[in-house]
Design goal:
Helix 1 (14-25) runs parallel beside helix 8. Strand 17 (362-364) and strand 18 form a beta hairpin. A five-stranded mixed beta barrel has the order 1-2-3-4-5. A five-stranded parallel beta sheet has the order 7-14-8-9-10. Strands 17-18-21-20-19 form a five-stranded antiparallel beta sheet, sandwiched between helices. Helix content is 31%, strand content 27%. The chain has helices at 14-25, 47-52, 54-73, 88-112, 173-176, 193-204, 224-237, 334-348, 377-382, 398-403, 431-443, 448-452, 462-472; strands at 3-10, 30-34, 116-128, 131-138, 141-151, 155-157, 170-171, 185-189, 208-212, 240-242, 246-255, 258-266, 272-277, 279-282, 286-288, 321-323, 362-364, 369-374, 387-393, 409-415, 421-428. With 479 residues, it is α/β, with parallel strands linked by helices. It has 13 helices and 21 strands. The protein binds flavin-adenine dinucleotide.
Amino acid sequence: MSKQFDVIVIGGGPGGYIGAIRAAQLGFNVACIDEWKNDKGGPAPGGTCTNVGCIPSKALLQSSEHFEHAHKHFAEHGISTGKVTMDVAKMVGRKDAVVKQNNDGILYLFKKNKVSFFHGRGSFVKAVEGGYEIKVAGAAEETLVGKQVIVATGSNARALPGVAFDEENILSNDGALRIGAVPKKLGVIGSGVIGLEMGSVWRRLGADVTVLEGLPTFLGAVDEQIAKEAKKAFDKQGLKIELGVKIGEIKTGKKGKESKVSVAYTNAKGEAQALEVDKLIVSIGRVPNTIGLNAEAVGLQLDERGAIVVDGDCRTNLPGVWAVGDVVRGPMLAHKAEEEGVAVAERIAGQHGHVNFNTIPWVIYTSPEIAWVGRTEQQLKEQGVKYKAGTFPFLANGRARALGDTTGMVKFLADAATDEILGVHIVGPMASELIAEAVVAMEFKASAEDIARICRAHPSLSEATKEAALAVDKRTLNF
Ligand SMILES: Cc1cc2nc3c(=O)[nH]c(=O)nc-3n(C[C@H](O)[C@H](O)[C@H](O)COP(=O)(O)OP(=O)(O)OC[C@H]3O[C@@H](n4cnc5c(N)ncnc54)[C@H](O)[C@@H]3O)c2cc1C
């Protein structure tokens, strides 16, 4: 006998579990199916984000930042310690505990919101009268029927052609979050968000890290001025970043007792190079995941990248089937997935859920942090938009000086004629938190003048935001 639901969500990552909760809040009878297993084989909802993405990476970034502070910066404050050491197993254990808290939190939220959770793989069986039959293959097999289906099956790490992840020496994000001891030499292929964050963790703990990037520009999606400032900081920290490389053969083997990875590549000048490392993280992007969904059974349309084809409102080619998050077009970000999950639940309820792609913030949680929303200066130039720019350095911010963290700046870009904010770009302390104000400002179509006239607590990093807004009109007060 099949179980009937108004809404079935396949995938319990940020897109799926948030969509399921919102649909339940709206009065629907909702099921959420997720196949992720914890180390004991039990359910671990939360998807990539909770299990091997946003949350564990930030836990390790926090631990490694504490280590670096104790190691390098406590002395400036007059604090002396004995030899600072790092127990990597304990750090990884703490990270696992943080992940479990989040998994358990989601299971609790499902209960609280009366979402029926099914642990196993969900796949389409067939379209039925007024909905779809979905099979759950888990510890027990179940058949569900849903009037509406939201697919939120996420993405997987992209491997280099012919170089499979063994998660021992050649690591995806999953293996990169489980390294058991600080490698002497670590290679990272790809200087995107994940490569830089993971490279930073192990660099802070003492690894000699080399990042190889195929593109000739560093962080091409980031405002050039901000990317340059970040690059200077990473160079100073000893993170070696080589741009414009072409990766050749990658071999794994043993050198003495230790296993090694050798990477042959050509540098930007076309010269043949070799990099020998203990571990290699490959972070060259992610591919939409529809493995096991049996999309063909119902004729769900995928594009050439394997992403589910959706319109602006996340409708697929099938009536009553929606798709959200990493498995569809758009930025692969947890908060974008969540926004889409909410919007779809509201659309199913006949409301007008909407995601504003122009105000989705981006953050790279390195030190300094990099965060931005809206358009970059290079985009405005390409688009022929007349703009004004204002920057304010953290060096001139009292709170940043007191924190001992004065790297970077806040940058505002505003329309030359209307003063409407077109983009805000931050590199520096707490950029991840400061950017929220810029997102709110842009959602409300604020002008730089609006932000410049709002009072800030003193001393606070947010004063740098106000000052950068003032700088648009060339009237900073503290610089
Ligand atoms: C190392 C790393 C760090 C990241 N850091 C950040 C960050 O700081 N901020 C940010 O915004 N984003 C970050 N991301 C990206 C973020 O994790 C993703 O954008 C987000 O998880 C996408 O959410 P989703 O719900 O679409 O998919 P996912 O989180 O991938 O969840 C999909 C879920 O569906 C399940 N599933 C798949 N197929 C089936 C099936 N057939 N049946 C049942 N279950 C199925 C999967 O097991 C998984 O649990 C990071 C990613 C990585 C790898």
